[in-house]
Amino acid sequence: MSTMAPEEKHVSRRGCLKSKWARILLAVIVFIVLCAAIIPAVVVTTLRKNNSMGPKSKVFVPLYVYPAPGAWTPLENVVSAYPDVNFTVVINPGNGPGPNSLPDANYTREIPVLASYANVRLLGYVHTSYAQRNISLVRKDIETYAAWPTNSSNPDLAVRGIFFDEAPQQYSAQSLNYLQNLTDLVKELNGFGSNGFVVHNPGAVPDSRYLASADSTVVFEGTYSSFQERQGAKLFTAIPDSNRTQLCAVIHSVPDTVEDPKLRSLVKEARKVVDELYITHLSVDYYASFGSKWTEFVDLMSD
């Protein structure tokens, strides 16, 4: 039985009520704070999920830009700004390695700079004239690239494989043997590192029997309008015995109106089916400079 006076009981009950309401108010405040923290995170996660760009792809760069001071800066800027994006970069000193054992001073200055980035793989340009060029001349070009580190006494003056331009599209056993012999040479030479990388460029979907003789094949090189006419990514889905890790696409002459969400959709569509991708809005000399949407393209490739 309580011995508390009536007025004391009244004060006690009033204190209990205040305490109860304080606890309720505190619970409401905690709930609001939690909602403020959780709901935006859920929304951002949902948006990211809905805006997913799909599988990551490498940025493929036909760098046919002469390396005068500052000319390669737009590439170096994005390479350093996006360390999680991998770049496959093709250099072409003189329709191949050039006539001498080493390229000129501008190349010997700039190549080691690009080669120093862990997310860059440099390739040397060699043309095959659709497997009709004298194979001894092609082998000589390959061996010249491979000897750069030794001839320059600079291990960073090096490429890590070969980009074979003008690769055949129609099948012949002779052409396949030609290409396979060149691939074997690239893989054997120490100058390309532990495993030289080989890219073929027929510029169109080749006979699938050629795919195994390269690490990557450019199955589309053309204009944006041509890409759209061929139903975009559906163009590649019919390639038998292939997967996206073997495929590369080069899309140029993209209209300036294809920007923001339209460019995002284009990049997303292509990334579904190719592991290496180059897109430029330039319609003239599209491999000799960087277009106005270059940084935007690389940024989309980082998503």
Helix proportion range: 40-55%
Summing up helix and strand content along with how strands pair, one would put the structural category as: alpha/beta
User: Average pLDDT, to the nearest integer?
Assistant: 87
Strand content: 15-25%
Element pattern in H and E: HEHEHEHEHEEHHEHEH
Spatial shape: globular
The stretches of 5 or more residues where confidence is low (pLDDT under 50) are 1-18, 37-50
CA-atom Rg in angstroms: 29 Å
Structure description:
By secondary structure, the chain is α/β, with parallel strands linked by helices. It has helices at 6-50, 73-81, 105-115, 135-152, 173-188, 224-229, 234-237, 261-271, 294-301; strands spanning 58-63, 87-91, 120-127, 161-165, 197-201, 216-223, 247-252, 276-279. The chain has an 8-stranded parallel β-barrel with strand order 1-2-3-4-5-6-7-8, surrounded by 4 helices. Helix 4 (135-152) runs parallel beside helix 5 (173-188). The model is unreliable at 1-18 and 37-50 (pLDDT under 50). The chain crosses the membrane at residues 21-43. InterPro entries: Spherulin4. Keywords: Membrane, Transmembrane, Transmembrane helix. Pfam families: Spherulin4. This is Cell surface spherulin 4-like protein.
